[in-house]
């Protein structure tokens, strides 16, 4: 090709491509890494950190990997729906005996995000026209995933006017007056992201009754099983919904409760009214996967299956999850206690009922920016703080900084 041909407008199409804005969460980590403040803290991205500030590999995971190194005999492709042993363990862990096995399709996915995208593509290709309703606020990536799939979305109210409590009446009013039969609704099974504010058992019953009455299809994000009140206890909302409806989609992840963030281990689970509908839907989910990532990676799913195949490793895993859960609860309590005695004294007791890795601090975007600019402390613009990223050693430093921006 001649130099003149290379310089024609048709050969410079990429010059018109605009720069995408930084990711609202992961972009903060890039800024954090570039920050030269020696006392900086990253409380934005949702990863668990131990007292030393590291994201640890669970001991049960280390043992499972040792066994895999010794026993694994192939790197061949998995099937489109993933590792059979992994899929069966997902079914048992998430649903137990609550739903008949022949009504559930489980497909291994690249993390919870991959599961949400597969589910979104399914809604668009198989159930369109459809709109999905999500809480305001919700995880920042939810609307991006739905938009990328071409799935129209809208929001229902979640927080009360105080921004520190769940307003079930407002939520139900929105569902009653705004939704149409056949719409989908995104619900967080536990540890609501970003608020940490979950419905009570009675409120879950109200939500389930409304979902059923309005003929909505639940899409349930179940990314934090075990980090709220316990592995079994955290299924309460999910099971309440499944008692009220015959169809649902559940997207689950082992990033948090197995610490397998970089392995991308999740699953999309579809519950149908009967085995025939499940089989047909499963075939469509597999077609979506085939044209997207073809089949999932093996290693992360094999780790989970190896642990859950072994009673001793399973008990060890449950113990490690409980240790993480209890430590997060202690850190949240320590933050509230320390804030009471810092600066002019600040009441953050509204954080105590919150569950999971995140707490909704109530800080304004301006205060969040001051934390970053003046103190090197990074949290999400909504005011979401990753409690699991706090440390006992730096708790006073964190509270001093929060008090300073509140009092400025």
TrEMBL record:
Organism annotation: Novipirellula artificiosorum
Molecular function via GO: identical protein binding; L-aspartate:2-oxoglutarate aminotransferase activity; pyridoxal phosphate binding
Keyword Transferase in annotation: yes
Family, as annotated: Belongs to the class-I pyridoxal-phosphate-dependent aminotransferase family.
Keywords tagged on the record: Aminotransferase, Pyridoxal phosphate, Transferase
Name of this chain's protein: Aspartate aminotransferase
Gene3D superfamilies for the chain: Aspartate Aminotransferase, domain 1 (3.90.1150.10), Type I PLP-dependent aspartate aminotransferase-like (Major domain) (3.40.640.10)
Record-level GO BP terms: amino acid metabolic process
Matches recorded under CDD domains: AAT_like
Subunit structure: Homodimer.
EC number: 2.6.1.1
NCBIfam families: PRK09257.1 (NF006719)
Annotated Aminotransferase class I/classII large domain residues: 39-402
Cofactor: pyridoxal 5'-phosphate
Pfam families (alphabetical): Aminotran_1_2
